[in-house]
Amino acid sequence: MNNIVLFKDRAYCCGCGACWASCPRNAISMVEDEYGCKYPIINESICIKCGKCLKMCKYQNVKSGKNPIVAYAAKTKNEQILNKSASGGIFASLAYEIIALGGYVAGAVLEFNQNQKITVHHILSNNKGNIELMQGSKYVQSDAWRCYKEVIQIVKSGKQVLFCGTPCQVDAIKQITGNPDNLITIDLICHGVPPARMLQDYLKVMGKTLGGHITGFQFRDKTCHKEWTSKITIKKGKKEKNYFIPSRFVSFYKYFLESVIYRENCYTCPYANLKRVADLTIGDFWGIEQYHKDDLGRDTNGWSCVLINTKKGKDFFDMHGSGIQKFLSKAEWIEKNNHQLRHPSMKNEQRKNVLDS
Ligand SMILES: Cc1cc2nc3c(=O)[nH]c(=O)nc-3n(C[C@H](O)[C@H](O)[C@H](O)COP(=O)(O)OP(=O)(O)OC[C@H]3O[C@@H](n4cnc5c(N)ncnc54)[C@H](O)[C@@H]3O)c2cc1C
Questions:
Q1: Is 278 inside any structural domain?
Q2: Distance from C-alpha of 278 to C-alpha of 170, rounded to nearest angstrom
Q3: pLDDT of residue 226
Q4: Is the distance from the beta carbon of residue 266 to the nearest atom of ligand 1 less than 6 Å?
Q5: What confidence category does residue 133 fall into, taking pLDDT thresholds of 50, 70 and 90?
Q6: Closest Cα to residue 125, out of 142, 103, 146, 92?
Q7: 34 lies in a domain?
Q8: pLDDT of residue 111
Q9: Measured in angstroms, how far is the CA atom of residue 269 from the centroid of ligand 1?
Q10: Under a CB-based contact definition with an 8 Å cutoff, are residues 135 and 218 in contact?
Q11: Is 138 in the pocket of ligand 1 (CB under 6 A)?
Q12: Number of CB atoms found within 10 A of residue 130's CB
């Protein structure tokens, strides 16, 4: 078997997998490099050279998105949803509405198998029990491509689909479905994504240190009423125990926040600006107290920002956002404390050393 690397320069592949999903012969595999980042590889003996994979790849030719029409500070009204979400619970609040109306939702889930191997991938579901699995930020790359073919089928059947992911994943799903009216997209304000294998390596070490098998991990758990606490669930014998660790002591998290371990292309991400590709953009509202002191009163925790970027997004948010409390804000204020809305994360000079260690 002769394998060809689809994109020779790693800076030009975001790993969204649009090429994988569009291949009519299933000739493409997403294969890990030495750091665990996945890239498309073509099996030449099956490939019919139709060129569809390159045509579907938006990343090679990103067109500008749209400046937000409206910006909000927002948070779910439901405390249970809020506590399970990384930020203001905007995604889950909208997701419950859509499923109740007969629609489907696509988001990222983190799974552990017996050998403490983790996978982070997108699922498409119309079961509200699965929303909890999608809630919470998994700060690694999700294999979003695993759900693309199902999304294509469901939107073709006329049912509504709410897809949430990083901007490159959103651009991919729009491209391969043709962005019909019944597809609503939400992109995250995204720093960049490390490969899931790095999180797995970290959790393996933690499992050894804590003397058990890791069966669960959450980046931003709110049990201790602090947003930046990681929760590790360990199985020792037949018992499971939770450990809550301030995120600043989690080395993986530190490397993530300091832009050390992202995929190569994240450092030149063409989506890191205010021209958004999705109907809605969600993120943390950093520095909210600076601009909304009077609106907030004493309720200063857990607010998200929502950027409404298209008319489709506006109609959707107006119609399905009744579970969300919100007040008008400004995109410039949100941008000020979120550099990903101005430029990509800068490569940390420690990157090579850390990746090769
Ligand atoms: C890799 C990554 C980097 C981020 N960087 C920033 C940032 O720099 N600034 C900022 O303001 N916000 C950032 N966020 C967004 C932030 O963490 C919250 O997700 C966001 O504020 C929405 O919060 P929420 O409570 O509405 O929803 P959440 O409960 O956080 O869930 C939101 C959605 O994100 C999806 N999701 C979770 N992990 C992933 C993943 N790995 N890939 C794709 N989709 C995923 C979930 O399935 C769900 O659909 C980032 C998120 C991720 C995943």
A1: no
A2: 6
A3: 66
A4: no
A5: very high
A6: 103
A7: yes
A8: 94
A9: 17
A10: no
A11: yes
A12: 17
Domain count, the chain: 1
| CATH number, domain with residue 14 | 3.30.70.3270
> Ligand 1 atom closest to Cα of 164?
49
At residue 272 the predicted structure's pLDDT band, cuts being 50, 70 and 90, is very high
Q: Which residues pair with residue 122 across a beta bridge?
A: 108
Ligand 1 nearest atom to the CA of residue 95, by list position: 49
Token readout for 266 is 């994240």
Specify the residue with its C-alpha closest to ligand 1, atom 10.
Answer: 283
Kindly give the number of the ligand 1 atom that is closest to the alpha carbon of 82. Answer: 25
Residue identified by tokens 């959707």 is: 316
Q: What is the C-alpha separation between 12 and 30, in angstroms, rounded?
A: 15
In a domain, 75, yes or no: no
Q: Which two tokens mark 147?
A: 């759900």
Query: Are 117 and 103 contacting, i.e. CB atoms less than 8 angstroms apart?
Result: no
Mean pLDDT of 164-179: 97
Residue 122's alpha-carbon distances to 49, 77, 133, 207, in angstroms, are 28, 26, 10, 25
Among 188, 280, 285, 339, the mutation site with the greatest number of ligand 1 atoms within 8 A of its Cβ is 188
**Residue 58, ligand 1, Cβ within 6 A:** no
Q: By residue range, what is the domain housing residue 14?
A: 3-61
Q: Is residue 49 part of a domain?
A: yes
The yes-or-no verdict on residue 209 having pLDDT over 80 is yes
Residue nearest to atom 19 of ligand 1 (CA): 137
Task: Please give the full DSSP string across 286-313, using - where no structure is assigned.
Answer: TTHHHHHHHHHTT--SS-EEEEE-SHHH
Distance 199 CA to ligand 1 centre (A): 16
